[in-house]
């Protein structure tokens, strides 16, 4: 039974886990493998390919809820929602461009397992905030369910929140249910040119705190704007997105423009705005096929007010940009055996936040902490949770942290 296991349903998943338990094997869990290069490399007894668990099982547009098997392509989910004028509000990232892999290969299960969220997180929250229900198989070979098909349906432990962001180390999701929302009718982006990082952070903070319902706030330094095609300009660009019905968008972006009162501004219409924010979402400025592709790529989350302080503590040779109003910093430090981990981890420890290595050679990922190491009481709790769900270490052992 070694090699690739491709279950057809949840019972097959249970059988695969029980086989692994009986033979002392571990399982490498994947959907389409679009994020396989993220995390610590490890040797496994077999690969559990969930791509056969595909298909939308329930979609009720009026109730704003969709259910699907975990291996369903994210593109299929998004197409079904778009046909009804709806969308996944958390705007999940596609890591293909960042990793040098084909784009559009993510699955809905992988999206939730990685708790992915794009620029709209500042308004809509992360994937876990839209995760209503799940059926999963634990490392004990037991199927369990949590949540349901309505928002107010949680009693006891909210296991959906626990599984989101666990990267398949606690349970193998077989079916998921998500909240969806109407897709904005249109959008526009206000661009402020020529701001330094501190000025840009202040502008983004002011915009996000305004009554104009800004749904995206990012800053691209001047050395990266040529990669983004922003109105033909090459100076630094601070991006502020507004979405909704056309009259409201037109009114709000005008009001925001008057409130910020910057000497150099521009507006992007719907088509240009959508293309630009997709590029921000998918980390195009630091993509693997650019001249920066040989550099490691870090995803650092911190308090928006601390973003500038954090980047001031890392190598000045790093190339980076800000999303989430300054709370998310994408950093490509110079290539090094440790992928720049020492400097970035030190900066995060001093300023606060957490850092994840998204792109780096397997040799480096095997030697350093790819995910923020849980220390103290959090580390002890993390270990106890892993032991509760997967006492024999069958599910993706070592992918997030050595020994877990």
Structural descriptors:
404 residues, alpha+beta, Uridine Diphospho-n-acetylenolpyruvylglucosamine Reductase, domain 3, Alpha-Beta Plaits, 3 domains, five-stranded antiparallel beta sheet, four-stranded antiparallel beta sheet, 13 helices, 18 strands, 29% helix, globular
Report the C-alpha radius of gyration, rounded: 21 Å
Total beta strands: 18
Output the CATH class name of the largest domain: Alpha Beta
CATH architecture annotation name of the largest domain: 2-Layer Sandwich
Q: Which strands sit side by side, in order, in the main sheet?
A: 4-5-9-7-8
Indicate the overall shape.
globular
Describe this structure in words.
By secondary structure, this protein is α+β, with helices and mostly antiparallel strands. It folds into three domains: 215 residues, 2-Layer Sandwich (Uridine Diphospho-n-acetylenolpyruvylglucosamine Reductase, domain 3); 97 residues, Alpha-Beta Plaits, CATH 3.30.70; 86 residues, 2-Layer Sandwich (Alpha-Beta Plaits). 29% of the residues lie in helices and 24% in strands. The protein has 13 helices and 18 strands. The strands form five sheets. The protein has a five-stranded antiparallel beta sheet with strand order 4-5-9-7-8. A four-stranded antiparallel beta sheet has the order 12-13-11-14. Strand 4 and strand 5 form a beta hairpin. It is globular and about 70 Å long. The model has no long low-confidence stretch (mean pLDDT 95).
């Amino acid at each position: 039974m070694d090699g690739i296991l491709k279950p057809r349903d949840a019972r097959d998943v249970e059988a695969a886990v029980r086989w692994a338990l009986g033979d002392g094997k571990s399982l490498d869990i994947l959907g389409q493998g679009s994020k396989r290069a993220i995390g610590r490399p490890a040797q496994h007894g077999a690969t559990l390919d969930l791509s056969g668990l595909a298909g939308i099982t329930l979609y009720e547009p009026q109730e704003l809820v969709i259910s699907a098997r975990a291996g369903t392509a994210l593109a299929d989910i998004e197409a079904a929602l778009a046909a009804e004028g709806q969308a996944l509000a958390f705007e999940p990232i596609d890591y293909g461009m960042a990793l040098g892999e084909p784009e559009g290969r993510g699955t809905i299960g992988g999206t939730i397992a990685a708790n992915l969220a794009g620029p709209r997180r500042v308004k809509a929250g992360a994937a876990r905030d839209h995760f209503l229900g799940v059926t999963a198989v634990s490392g004990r070979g037991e199927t369990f369910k949590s949540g349901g098909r309505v928002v107010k349906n949680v009693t006891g432990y909210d296991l959906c929140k626990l599984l989101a962001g666990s990267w398949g180390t606690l349970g193998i999701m077989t079916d998921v249910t998500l909240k969806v929302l109407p897709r904005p009718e249109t959008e526009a982006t206000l661009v402020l040119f020529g701001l330094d990082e501190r000025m840009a952070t202040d502008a983004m903070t002011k915009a996000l705190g305004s009554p104009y319902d800004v749904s995206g706030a990012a800053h691209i330094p001047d050395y990266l704007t040529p990669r983004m095609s922003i109105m033909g300009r090459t100076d630094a660009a601070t991006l502020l997105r507004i979405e909704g019905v056309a009259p409201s968008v037109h009114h709000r972006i005008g009001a925001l423009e008057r409130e910020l009162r910057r000497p150099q501004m521009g507006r992007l219409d719907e088509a240009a705005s959508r293309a630009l924010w997709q590029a921000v979402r998918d980390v195009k400025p630091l993509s693997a096929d650019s001249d920066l592709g040989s550099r490691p790529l870090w995803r650092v989350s911190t308090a928006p007010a601390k973003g500038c302080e954090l980047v001031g503590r890392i190598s000045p040779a790093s190339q980076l940009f800000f999303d989430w109003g300054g709370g998310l910093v994408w950093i490509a430090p110079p290539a090094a055996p440790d992928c720049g981990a020492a400097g970035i981890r030190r900066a995060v420890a001093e300023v606060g936040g957490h850092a994840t290595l998204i792109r780096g050679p397997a040799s480096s990922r095997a030697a350093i902490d790819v995910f923020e190491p849980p220390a103290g009481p959090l580390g002890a709790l993390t270990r106890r949770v892993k032991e509760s769900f997967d006492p024999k270490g069958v599910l993706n052992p070592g992918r997030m942290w050595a020994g877990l």
